[in-house]
Hints:
By secondary structure, this protein is an alpha/beta fold. It has one domain (45-220): 3-Layer(aba) Sandwich (Rossmann fold), CATH 3.40.50. Helix content is 53%, strand content 10%. The protein contains 11 helices and 5 strands. It has helices at 3-41, 55-58, 62-65, 81-86, 88-92, 105-109, 114-131, 153-157, 162-179, 187-190, 210-220; strands at 49-53, 71-75, 98-102, 136-140, 183-184. A 5-stranded parallel β-sheet has the order 2-1-3-4-5. It starts with a helix and ends with a helix.
Amino acid sequence: MSVLEIVLTSVLGGLVLVAVFYLLVFHTNKNNRLELFEVLNDDAVIGATVFFGDSLTDFFPVQDFFPNRIIYNRGIAGDTTKNLLERLDNVVKIQPKKIIIQIGTNDLGKGVKIEKIIKNIEKIYQTLQKEVPNIEIIALSLYPVSHHKMWLSPVIAGIRSRKKILKTNTLLQALCMKMNIPFVQLYSQLADAKGRLNREYTLEGLHISGRGYAVIANVLKDYL
Length: 224
């Protein structure tokens, strides 16, 4: 085996280990979060505000940014639109007055067609409107990503692209207009001049940093 082959094998092996560890952490977190939500629902306040989504919601310290409001974070890292549909009943149980939803980037990361993503999101909205009378749904756009933040960014951001994210946001905005749901465009707030996730607002090209969440919270305060 040549030196180049040894190096390539080592790099590939390292990436596989990182991927396995990444998936293991997300899987463990998902099961723990689902169990936690069931427990917390027993004492949850009816008519509160819920944040619903994937890791971009899961890691959002909403209670710290909005300490004077009753808010429940129901984000789970790794979730897709399909996963949110499967666990909607957990949110319905506490009959929230307002729900902020941000979902879809993991669908793109898995190659799900954009039209399918929008269809699933529409089902989420429809189910909530049917099961929770007078609920106020607030839709957040997908955030930009960056493949240039660090050496691992291309792996973490994966096949998500600016073009696909913008198309998804366009179709999502159209859906919200049709259903009379407020659509919060955060892409431009987080993007740099090249349309990539601003380096100051991300940890590794996909997930949001403290400064990034401060930007998001500043926009959302008008909706809460």
